[in-house]
Amino acid sequence: MNTFLQNNPFFRLTIALALGIIVAFFDVPEWVFYSTFSIGILTLFCFYLLKKDENIFKYAWIFGVSIFLALFSIGGFLTIKQLENSAFPHTNRQGIFTVKIIEQPIEKPKSTMLKAEVLSFKDSSEVKTINKKAIIYLEKDSLSGTLTRGDIIALRTMFSEPQNYNNPEAFNYKAYLKRQGIGATAYCNKKNWRYVTHQSQTSLAAVAEKCRFHLLNIYKQFHIEGDEFGMVAALTLGYKDALSPELRESFSTTGAMHVLAVSGLHVGIIFFVLSLLFKPLGNGKKRIVIRNLLIILFLWIYAFITGLSPSVCRATLMFSLVAIANMFNRQSSIYNTIFFSAFVLLLVNPSFLLEVGFQLSYCAVLAIVYFQPKLSAIWHPQNKFIKWCWELACVSIVAQIGTAPFAMYYFHQFPNYFLLTNFIVIPAASVIIYLAIALFLTSFIPYVGAAVAFLLNYVLKFINWCIAGIEHFPNALSTIFIGKEETLLLYALVVTAVFLCEKKNFSSVIAFLLLIFCFFSFRFYNHYNAFTTQEAVVFKHNKANIINFVSGTENLVITNDTVEARKLATVFWLKKQTVTPQFLEDSVLHKTAVVCNDKRYLCITQSIPKKTKNTQPIIVDNLIIGRKLFADTTLFTTHFMPQQITIAECVPFYVAERIKGLASQFDIKCIGKE
Fold this sequence. Notes:
- By secondary structure, the protein is an alpha/beta fold.
- The protein has 5 domains: about 1-85; about 95-200, CATH 2.40.50; about 205-350 and about 420-475, no CATH class; about 485-530; about 535-670, no CATH class.
- The chain has helices at about 1-5, 10-25, 30-50, 60-85, 175-180, 205-220, 225-235, 245-255, 255-260, 265-275, 285-305, 310-330, 335-350, 355-375, 385-410, 420-440, 450-470, 485-505, 505-530, 560-575, 635-640, 655-665; strands at about 95-100, 105, 110-120, 125-140, 150-160, 180-190, 195-200, 415, 475-480, 535-540, 545-550, 555-560, 580-585, 595, 600-605, 620-625, 640-645, 670.
- Strands 1, 2, 3, 4, 5, 6 and 7 form a 7-stranded mixed sheet that branches. A 5-stranded mixed sheet has the order 14-15-16-17-18. Strands 10-11-12-13 form a 4-stranded mixed sheet, with helices on one face.
- Helix 8 (about 245-255) crosses helix 17, helix 15 (about 385-410) crosses helix 16 and helix 18 (about 485-505) runs antiparallel to helix 19.
- The longest helix is centred in the middle third of the chain and has 28 residues, at about 385-410.
- The two termini are about 55 Å apart.
- The mean pLDDT is about 85.
């Protein structure tokens, strides 16, 4: 291990930087990082005083501690600065905002989504410069569809912080936008905005986007459309907006989603093609330098065109380092190269650390680099085709070892036929990339470009046909829920497996077995909780009632929208390991209380007919009030006597305020709909 640390100094440097970033995301005060930075500088000064000592190597750890603390602090400072830049002023204030569209607008079913830089704010009292990023939804019409990157528009609206309902196991949309530097969202109808002007985009990112859309138009020019267009656009240019939900689901179910994310495979093929294209430059010392500089330049142009995702940045930086090593005829540690690329990316953008793509990309490449040679060494087939199949199988298996824990944690699924899928999609994806490059180079040549496009289109159709077939295999997908603790234990098992391979000692075996015991103990504990706990959940949704009662494996849902209920609650049901939910329509006036966790719950989602009379009020612990209810004093004098009232998010504001007033009048605790 000491040899590994000595040969790969960027491992420790990256760990220090990453720890600082993680701690900063927990809203740790800035003075903590000032303190650690000061301690780091102080220890470095102490090392400087001791450097004349003959036994200076005894104090080398002081230098290591000082560098660790300094980088830890730098990671914290960078993260805090990035989070501060996302803070949006003038939220919840009506006024006129001038905004510049910074990315190509995306059409939604009922709106046009703009990622924009808000330039200024104006109301009756002041004009303020803002220069902050935000997401804006314009009511969809013919004019909103003509907007493009660089357009400046003025709109009368009100920005607010991104809404996060905090439903159980829900995606934290607010935190996600914050990491993107976006601190506010707004909606504007078609009457309250107008086009101002267009500002020419001269930035590198703008030029790259123009190049991307020019290349996408080449696909369309040769009639590559539908799912085939969505697939080739994502696979070659990182453009995923054209992917249909059904195609995404198919690739996710079969374990082929990684092919649609531009990463090491794609960049490696581009690197190989560029090496061939520039080979005629020769092998002289200066020519080698020029050739590799050109390769690096075009690699980064490709990375910009594909959107600079964490995975493509990682791969491009690594291949750039390979090209630099070729320039000077030097070989460096592959692990040091990997961690150096991570170190640089985190310095540029600390939020990359929490990006799923960044985590999966580095876990995959580290697993492949370490485990693939060891697994492939088990068998050495002589037949070339069998050897190729074995090598591909080894890469697929070890990549799953590296990424499966995160994939199960984030996506709650495991593709059972990933090995079969990879035998089809990886070679086919390579062919698609080569054909796409050929199409770009020959698109202006009559007949040749059309022939290449014809081949490309049919390879795409073949992959889609194969993916659709594998998706319908029995038990193609296993759904599973694992928490943070189990994810960490699985990765601890992977790391311990590395020690076991290297050391092969008794302590490594004990550690490995102990981690397995801990993992299955957590699984058993979660199973036990799932079968014994009872829970009542009112999911927050601005249009739908979703009221869920879980008791052991029993699962009752009262809702007016089963589709939205499944979207919001599926992961929660998976965690609770419940059976298929039993849905009850909320349009029915339910008068039977549901007993959950020794409490009586009653859901009222519509107004009670005036002629309805009760001999005495129904006593319940919690009265859940949903949409379509008109509340009057008879609610608590004639019909119900609750200990607590819960108001669903979909209840109109004026109705919620009336219910709160009545609850206060009768001294009843009221929660929800703030």
